[in-house]
Amino acid sequence: MQTRHIEGQLHVSGQVRPQDIDGLVSAGITTLICNRPDNEEPGQPNFEELAQAARARGIAPFYLPVGGKIAPEDQAEAFAKILAENPGPTLAFCRTGNRSEKVACAARSRSAANGATNGRALHHKVVIVGGGSAGIAAAASLLKRSPALDVAIVEPSEDHFYQPGFTMVGGGVFQQPDTVRKTREVLPKGASWIRAAVSGFAPDSNTVELEGGAAVTYDVLVVALGNRLAWDSIEGLEAALGQNGVTSNYRYDLAPYTWQMVQKLARTPGPRRALFSQPPMPIKCAGAPQKAMYLSCSEWEERGVLGDIEVEFHNAGGVLFGVPDYVPALMETVERYGIGLKFGSTLVAVDGPAREATFRTETGEITRSFDMLHAVPPQEGNPIIANSPLADAAGYAEVDQVTLQSLGWPNVFALGDGCSTPNAKTAAAARKQAPVVAVNVLAALDGKDPVAAYDGYGSCPLTVDRGHIVLAEFTYGGKLAPSLPRWLIDGTRPSRVAWHLKADALPPIYWHGMLKGREWLVPPAPLL
Q: Which ranges carry the Beta-lactamase hydrolase-like protein phosphatase-like domain (predicted)?
C-alpha cells in the first residue's frame, strides 16, 4: 500500500483494508483516521471492520467521513484535535488519499489561524505575507528546493484569483469560474496557512502583526502583498460600478458585466459611445485597459456595428505603450478600429445615472457622455506596507531591484505588485521573481548574501482582437526579452500563436506550473 507524507508524522493513502493492518504496525503507525464514508462503493470494507482489526494491534482508529454534503473543512477541527491528542505516526485515508490530504490542509490552516488569533506565540522559519500569485509561487519555489522547510503563508481570503484571466472574461473568451480556485487548493504542500489579515510589520523584532492583536515571528520574511486599487480616488466611481454601463475588468465580479455591455451595445441601434480609461502609472498590467478596448472593438467589428460606435481611449499618460517597439502594431490596431486617442486625459469623476464621465486634461476638465465606460482605478502602495518601516516614499516595500532584498533588513524580501522594483506589474513578473526570492531566502537562512538576480522581466500579452496578440516581453529599461524564438512568435506583431499561448497555455502554466514551483523558462539567474 502506497502512502504520501504530508507533514510531521502525518501520512495519507488510499483505501486501507484489514489485511493492511500488520503492515501499518510494522511501519509504526499508531493512529488511523478514516475519511471515507461507509458504503461508498460495493466491496469497500466498512469502518467497524477496520477499527476492530486496528484496535487488536494497538492502533487507535477514528471515523471522520468526508463526501456528499460533508466538506473537508467540516472535519478540520476534529481532525486537528485527533492529531493534537494522539501524537505519533498517523495515517489518514479515503478512496485515493486526496480527501484526507484536503482535510489535513484545512486542519493545518485552522490550527495556525487559531494559534495566531488566540494570542499564542507563533514562529515560522519563513513567513510569507500574501497568498496571491507572488506569495504562493515564492512558497512553492522554496518548498521545491527545501521540502521540509517551515513556511507559513498569511492570507485572509478563502479564494485565489487568476487575475490575468479577468480580461478574457470581459471579452467573452473565458467563463468567470475559470479564474478562481479555493486558496486551500492552491497552497503548496508543506506550507502552513495562517488565515488572518496583517495589520503591520515590526522588522526590528522580526514580527508580523495580525488583526486582533496577535503576531507571528520569523527568521526570514517575504512580503507579497499587492498594490491598492484606489477606486475611491475617482468621484462617484464606486457607486456607479456594475450598473448604467460602468464596468471594469480589474474586478472579478465586474468582468462578466463588461461582456454584457459589449453585447448590449452591439444590439443597441443608432450611434453610441464607449469610453475606456487608463490612470497614471504605475498600475497592475499596464496593457489591460487597452486589452478591454481591443476585445470590445473586435466583437463589434465581427458583429458589423463598429462603425456606429464612437470609441475613445482616455490615457493619463503621453504614449500608447511604454516600450516603443510594440507601439507600431498597437497604432495599426487603433487605426483599424477608428479609436480616438486622448492622451493626458485622466478620469476624475463618474455620474452613473447621467452616464457622464469627467476627465482632467491640460486645458481643463471635460465631460463626456457614454453608453459604456470601462474604468481603471488609480493604484498606489498597499496601506499596510505604506504605514510600516519597510516602505519607500511611494508606499511600496523598498528592495534592491536585482536581489529583491530589503534595503533596510537583510532577512526581508519582497516581490509582486507591492514591491518597489520598477518593472511592469504583471503575473509574468511575479513568476520570474519567485525563484529569485526562493534562492535568496535560502541563502539568507544560511547567513549568506543573495546569489540570484532578477532582470526586471515582465510580459503583457496585448489582445488586439479575438485571435491575435502582440506579445510584449521586456526587462528593465524596455529591453526586449522574448521567451520563444522569433520564427515562432514575433512579439512586435499580432500573432495567432501568441493568442493560443494566452488563451490555452498560460492558464494551466499558472495553476499547474507557477503555483506548483515548476519554473518553466524562468530559472533563477546567478547574481554577477
A: 4-103
**What is the spatial distance between Cα 364 and Cα 343, in angstroms, rounded to a whole number?**
13
Q: What is the predicted pLDDT for the residue at 205? A: 97
The identity of residue 412, as a single letter, is: V
Domain boundaries, the chain: 3-117, 122-227+381-453, 231-377
Asked if 333 and 327 count as a contact pair (C-beta separation under 8 A), the reply is: no
What architecture is domain 3-117? Alpha-Beta Complex (3.90)
CB 445 within 8 A of CB 219: yes
Residue 441 neighbours by CB under 8 Å, 6+ apart: 126, 138, 142, 220, 222, 413
Residue 117 has a pLDDT of: 54
Amino acid 118 reads N
Q: Which CATH number fits domain 231-377: 1.10.3720.10, 3.40.30.10, 3.40.630.30, 3.50.50.60?
A: 3.50.50.60
pTM of the entire predicted model: 0.83
Which residue ranges of the chain lie beneath pLDDT 50? none
Distance CA 463, CA 455 (A): 25
Grid coordinates of 303: 458583429
Angle of the 288-303 helix axis to the 327-337 helix axis, nearest 10: 40
Query: Given this model, what pLDDT does residue 112 score?
Result: 66
Residue 203 makes CB contacts below 8 A (sequence gap 6+) with 221, 388, 389, 390, 406, 408, 409, 412
Question: d(Cα 264, Cα 330) in Å, to the nearest integer?
Answer: 26
Which residues belong to the active site? 285, 460
Going by their DSSP bridges, the two strands 31-34 and 60-63 should be labelled as parallel
In CATH terms, the fold of domain 122-227+381-453 is FAD/NAD(P)-binding domain (3.50.50)
Spatial CB neighbours of 85, under 8 Å, sequence gap ≥ 6: none
pLDDT in tens, 97-123: 999 998 988 887 776 666 665 555 589
Alpha carbon distances (Å) from 296 to 259, 270, 318: 8, 17, 23
Residue owning grid cell 530589503: 406
CB-based contact 279:347 (threshold 8 Å)? yes
